[in-house]
Design brief:
Blueprint: E1 2-3, E2 8-11, E3 17-22, E4 25-32, E5 38-43, E6 46-52, E7 59-64, E8 69-75, E9 81-86, E10 89-95, E11 101-105, E12 111-117, E13 123-127, E14 140-142, E15 147-149, E16 154-156, E17 161-162, E18 191-192, E19 200-201, E20 208-217, E21 222-232, E22 235-241, E23 256-261, E24 264-265
Antiparallel strand pairs: 1-2, 2-3, 3-4, 4-5, 5-6, 6-7, 7-8, 8-9, 9-10, 10-11, 11-12, 12-13, 14-15, 15-16, 16-17, 18-19, 20-21, 21-22, 22-23, 23-24
Length: 278
């Protein structure tokens, strides 16, 4: 059991959130299956049950406590949520470059809802009355609690952190990873965490994208302290590093470049070519 001064959070033996109370009032109660997926949420409005794609984490449809269909969802080949069918009406999702849901349109292309957030996912403004639980970074938002459900854990945008610890204790040579409540390395502009286990670069970048700063290199599990990761059409093509990583022997050139191919980073560095975009 934990609390934030206004609400109290209750957990089961597996450290899964099962109840949120404000005073003596139960705001929300949750149940999970053997795989740890949330299968129901009960609030003052009733019970919603969630049904998944086999052993995956994508919700295919929802019912009320009596088994009546509330909504079903359609996903693209890459797993991104494309559409929701609710009340017999199909709504289409529209995203920004970070992967936030910023609008819904109907079959005629009419905008029926819009959403705006700050960097950590707090709602700034919205329009429309469509019931839509998927919002910031494509996460599921529980309006009753103000928390985002990220599968393994719940994220509180008001404080920019998870409400429970990460099961992974972090790397000693990466101090930021030792904070087990940290969300997206405190850099939500660059990172997302759809599983609640590990942050990753937002994959919604397209065309020619640049990410600069301290970032986690997918595929090798290392943190580049100062560098640029270059994307073309959503795929990494190279990273330009402005440090020798404390190993001048293996990285004599600063800056230096590591090329990527099919999502795999070359361990060998090279000096930048004349006129190369860095």
């Amino acid at each position: 059991m934990t609390g934030d001064g206004t609400r109290t959070y209750f957990y089961d033996a597996a450290n899964r959130l099962i109840e949120v109370r404000q005073g003596a009032t139960v705001i929300a109660a949750f149940a999970y299956d053997a795989d740890g997926r949330r299968v129901s949420m009960t609030t003052a409005s009733g019970t919603v049950r969630f049904f998944y794609d086999g052993i995956g984490t994508r919700v295919l449809y929802e019912t009320d406590g009596g088994g009546n269909l509330l909504a079903r969802y359609v996903y693209g080949p890459g797993g991104q949520l494309l559409a929701m069918v609710r009340g017999g009406v199909t709504y289409y999702y529209h995203y920004n470059g970070h992967g936030d849901v910023v609008a819904l349109t109907d079959a005629a292309g009419t905008v029926v809802a819009t959403y705006d957030y700050d960097a950590f996912g707090n709602h700034i403004s919205s329009t429309g009355s469509v019931v839509n639980p998927y919002r910031y970074a494509g996460y599921r938002w529980d309006a009753e609690t103000g928390l985002y459900y990220l599968n393994a854990r719940y994220y509180a945008p008001q404080v920019g952190r998870f409400i429970t610890r990460d099961a992974f204790h972090g790397f000693e040579d990466d101090p930021a990873s030792l904070n087990q409540y940290n969300y997206a390395r405190s850099n939500p502009v660059m990172f997302v965490d759809p599983t609640g286990f590990n942050y990753s670069l937002s994959q919604e970048l397209n065309q020619y994208g640049l990410l600069f700063g301290s970032y986690f290199i997918p595929g090798i599990g290392k943190v580049v302290l100062v560098g640029t990761l270059v994307y073309v059409a959503g795929d990494p093509v190279k990273d330009v590093d402005y440090t020798d990583h404390g190993n001048l022997k293996h990285h004599p050139n600063v800056p230096h470049v590591h090329d990527w191919e099919n999502g795999v980073r070359s361990p060998k560095s090279r000096p930048p070519m004349s006129g190369e975009r860095l």
